[in-house]
Records
---
Amino acid sequence: MPSLGKVVDPLGLWSRASVAALDRALASRWAADALDVVLGSALAERAVRTVVEGPLAEAAVRSAIRTGLLERIADELLESGVAAQIVDQAVASPRMSELAASVLESEEMEALVAQALDSRLVDTSVARVLASEELWLVVDEVARSPAVTEAIAHQGAGFADQVAEEVGQRSRRADARLERLAHRLLRRPPADDDAIAAP
Amino acid sequence: MSAAPATAVQAHAAAPSVGSERYVGLVTRAIAFALDAAIINVVAILTAAAISLTLSIVKVPHDVRTVLAAAGGVAYVLWTVGYFVTFWATTGQTPGSRMMRIRVHAASGDRLPPRRALLRFAGVVVATIPFFAGFLPILVDDRRRGLHDMLARTVVLDAEPR
């Protein structure tokens, strides 16, 4: 059985005319003004609040979680590289540095860190790490590594050099002092350092 | 003493490897010599202790012990002479001299021949006998030479320019 529309307007002229009229109405300045008035009204605000606070929003969230919508969005963002791009931009932005600095320097953060350090969790974790055999294996491995042994040897040699240098300087000053004394006792003119130097 | 004997005036002027380094004085040389004496004696004591321990569990006739003691004395002297002569004639530096950064040279600037190194050691012994008076010339000599330096014609210089 043909529908009423096809009977009344078999060529669809009426429908096309209606759509064209609607397009024109939406594109008009009056439509924009009307929309501004509606959106700026207390009614619109109440409508939005009702939707957000109402069961509809919760149902939408539950549905998004249940259907895996959030995971799909996250997967899409990660695969497309958009997420990485956003993170890069966020990290590189000066605002992020300022934010991080202000957070780290804040009294709240200091109190939080102090609280964390005072907590039993830290003591327990440290005790557990110290009691673990793996830690000492790692320490042993590091201590025996060529880089560490070389650094220790280098430091030891550096210290020995420093001591030798210091003793050498002092003994040479004592040389000069003793010679001045000898020259004075023998009533000879003091030795000239340049005369002591080899040609 | 690890200090070095001296030089003829003409050799002094012609010393090519002596460069502009400085002659080393009595205190520095005495410290170097003390370090060498410590090394020599520590080695000797350890060796003597090892031999004594060995002999303590082996029954050795008294006469043999006397001979061994005499041999030990001779070995000590040889070890001491060999230590100084070898180092002076090769690198010019005993370990003590190396620590104090000084070096024994022939006055000409050449390496010290073994025979003169031996003569220098004899000079050290001679300088020690009159209550170390043989080292006093180091205090007044223009090239800081002791009796042993003068005998062997050597000088003692800084091992590196200061």
Note: The interface with chain A takes residues 12-13, 15, 18-28, 31, 99-101, 136, 139-140, 142-144, 155, 157, 162 of chain B (CB under 8 Å).
---
Amino acid sequence: MAAVTGAPDLAAGGSRWARFSRSEAVVGLALISPTFLYALLLLLAPVLAIVAFSFWTQDYLTIDRTFTLANYREAWSDPLYRVLMFRSLAVSGLVTLITVLLAYPMAYYLSFYGGERKALWLFLITIPFWTSYLLRVFAWKIILGYNGVVNASLMEVGIIAQPLEFLLYNVNSVVITLAHAWAPFAILPIFVSLEKIDRSLLEAATDLGDGPILRFLRVTLPLSLPGVIAAALIVFIPTVGDYVTPRLVGGNNGLMIANMIQVQFGKANDWPLGAALAVSTMVIVTAASLLFVAATRYMSSRFR
Amino acid sequence: MKLRPLGVYAFVYLAFLYVPVLFLPIFSFNDSAIVAFPLKGITTEWYAELWHNDTMHGALWNSLKVGIASSVIATILGICGARALTRYHFPGRAGMAALIMLPLVLPEIIIAISLLVVLLQLGFSLSLVSVTLGHILMAVPFSIAVLTSSFEGFDRSLEEASLDLGEGPAATFFRVTLPIVAPGILSSLLITFTISLDEFIVAFFLSGTEPTLPIYIWSQLRFPAKLPHILALGSVLLVASFLLLSAAELFRRRAARRAGIAASGGFL
């Protein structure tokens, strides 16, 4: 019915059609405006405020609003902040590499052999990442601790006589914990991109004489690359700014940049410096992400 | 199902996802204040302690208030967003969607400190309201993601039929659209509630003097003697999250099925 009544409308001339399309846009804009305004007022405006703060200075409780680059000079030259920043990037980079490499075969299995249980598998994979992040991180403290699960079982078996102390409170434990906590995030984007691959392309590759390995490298992997890139970014960007994991399992040598940002907004009470550290982190993370995407695209175009 | 190497890998991977968390309930029943192997015996002492802990009850009540408020508001905003993005084309659509979905990838600490700065500068004091504002921001993208699937499978000819039969746009929305996407909405409510219930960072920065449950847990982690008690609380929280999410998944599937049936019905 709709199609029949719609046709004369179209034929009736440009003005009615224009009015119709305009009203469609107006309705759409009106509908999205509460959600958009909320994000504008409580996300974009506050983030811009942080950027503004990073150019100001603080004298105990009063904020001096004269423009200065002093906070950035301090954030980029102080060795302590540099160490924390490099460590955050290195830890996140490593975590991203590990999670994506581990997630790919899992996503591949789900997409190609998941069969009727696909939905159940996906559900089981997604459940852990909805549950408390704090508790998942805390679980690793119990596992890796001095009297923890790993030490107790190794001693029980007789492999070690004394508990291993290098398990907890260092960069390794941060990497392990983050790789576990973010594992589900990497699987989903890769799975989605694998699902989109037209299976007849794989048959064509086989028909044209490619073996399973060559077929994977020349068809499956390049076509799933968008999912791999998405997975890498979804893990990399938030983990650079992670606070809980380094604080709970990192010890003094495993702390990351977010812990320092928190100190500036808390105990140190130097908001502008904290803001400069936060903005620097966002800029570096964005630059690193763009570089990564460009490099991956370039590599894949070279090898195809 | 044939046993492939890849299949074995998948099971090991799934075990890797779950096993660390399972140690929380295991130790929560351990009859010893020291959290270490070997296990001493089974006790429900730690759970009984939870029952009588007034500070924890206060935190639980705070979490419930924040969770209910933020899930309801986030889902309403999610309905507007998902409906606009799946049904209408308008200028600036992609940019608006990007900003709304941004909290999915933004480090949580950025959201937390930027809200902290703005709220304090505007003269608001930190309270459960500020936590709720932050949780809504973080939950909306998830609400939209859940609702988009139920709005997308939706057969538009049903709405057109309703309009043709003389109902107005508002009546059509409430009498046709809403009942069909209702399971999706329920799913969104449950998921956003769970997100709020488990969220730590934003609450850590914005809660002021009223702790939510994760803040209470964080404050107790410093005291080794309180550990078994926290493990019991954590286990309860894990089970609650699991149940809420399972219910959300059931509703989400029903939503998908309903949209599918509606579509085939429209086809006939």
Note: The CA atoms of residues 154 and 259 of chain B lie 5 Å apart.
